[in-house]
Design a protein that fits this description.
The complex is a heterodimer of chains A (268) and B (276). In chain A, helix 4 runs parallel beside helix 7. In chain A, the strands form two sheets. In chain A, strands 7-8-9-3-10-11 form a six-stranded mixed beta sheet, sandwiched between helices. In chain A, strands 1, 2, 4, 5 and 6 form a five-stranded antiparallel beta sheet that branches. Chain A has a single domain, classed as Rossmann fold (3-Layer(aba) Sandwich), CATH 3.40.50. Chain A is α/β, with parallel strands linked by helices. Helix content of chain A is 38%, strand content 25%. The longest helix of chain A is centred in the last third of the chain and has 18 residues. Chain B starts with a strand and ends in an 18-residue tail after the last helix. Classes of the chains: A alpha/beta (268), B alpha/beta (276). Chains A and B meet through helix 8, helix 9, helix 10 and helix 11 of A and helix 6, helix 7 and helix 9 of B.
Amino acid sequence: MTAPVLLDVRDLVVTYASDAGPVRAVDGVSFAVHAGETVALVGESGCGKTSVAFALMRVMAPGARIGTGSRITFDGADLLALDERAMRDLRGRKISMIFQEPASALNPVMKVGAQVAEVALLHGERSKRAAWDRAVAMLDRTGIADAARRAHQYPHELSGGMRQRVLIAMALMMRPALVIADEPTSALDVTVQAQILDLLRDLQRETGMAVLFITHDFGVVAELCSRAMVMRAGRIVEDAPVDRIFHAPADPYTAELLRAVPRLTADR
Amino acid sequence: MSDTLISVSHLTHEFAAHRTMFGASHATIRAVNDVSFDIARGETLALVGESGCGKTTTGRAILRLIEPTSGHVTFDGIDVLALQREPLRKLRRRMQVVFQDPHTSLDPRMRVGRTVREGIEAHELAEGAEADARVARALEEVGLRASDAAKLPHEFSGGQRQRIAIARALAVEPEFVVLDEAVSALDVTVQAQVLALLMQLQRDRGLTYLFIAHNLAVVERIATRVAVMYLGRIVEIAAAATLYASPQHGYTRALLSAVPVPDPRVKKKRIVWDGT
């Protein structure tokens, strides 16, 4: 890998408060993401993969804490040392996130065009008119037909796949260097999922952004990612190029997961 | 083998799309549109399709959890849609359902033993110590312990909760079970275990399943026959081996081609269906 390291995570620990004392959801995780790379963070529910994503964005649930020995370096900056104002500037502009549930991630009473335009307005765009035009262009780029008209619609007027395209438009508006995608296709039908994966692949090639793809679905990992990190119980048990993960997994848990993945006979 | 247990013919269910303020309906949507199929005793018919295709509505209409607009459903020769309240209640012992989400389908404040026991008592299959024994047997049969009867749902994992839902359905000794996305919410390792359990129970008891699902790879593991639904209609129905090896309908082909391959060395050609 010749591309420079964009994100470097060292010994990340995330704890949640519970009645029985702090619980370690992320238990000493270290990894790097290079510029332009698409990496999967894959694991079953409760393994801590989403907690890693939230720690990277520094959006923490009440009672959640990042361990004092943890280090997150993004584009040379110490992410955990930034004040909230600097972090707010970074979010959406240099690192952005695509969530699983487009229905709950969007504001139900705001036109989708305005929600995409808002990202530009938060990050330096002065003209509302220009922000709206940029939003329409971005919606068009994510494959929304008749984007100028759709921009005036509300989330409930759009299908699930289209709402996910709106979220992608918001995430990519500022051409971030890193996009964290948390199960972005898990709630979608397979034919729509296939379209969204194609879209992400195209946009990734076009913009050179790095993608950290958080998922439980090995099919999606194989389709989109060049490297995969397998998480179990708060730790990364294996970090390797996808070909090695799928054809010569070093960790027994990775092998067990792969054996359980349902696959079509015709695809074997 | 061709002993038909369920027969569905010309089943149609319409929902009101818009209503006036007095409840009169302006337009209707046919969620299920002239659907017909048979299910043989002991087989698993899978009903697959994407969200909104009508597969869940079809399952519910067969069980009469909703009243379909028109059509016929027979169960072991009984006209299900014509039954009055009491005979329908009696028939419900013979046809059970397991839903997708074990977090919402179990009463969070009811102990697991009570949940499983309810059906046994409602159908007057047993009482007292004999009912306790049946509950214990039902829990053990799905891989749980008899002592789990004293626990509450939140003390179990998602996979264990789905086992409880299966125990509840099977405790009344049904012949037919509708499995509505019953393994969809589970992690793959747990999903594989619950699927194996369902197949084992089917062999042991000669159960007949209607397996409603959207995941074609999961369906291939369990189905005897597969019906593909699209916009309320069955577009293709065939023996599972035939359907997976040589899908006939354009929509089935598109659906199969969209399933991601869990192998980076395999690049599948995607087929797009234009709806014709």
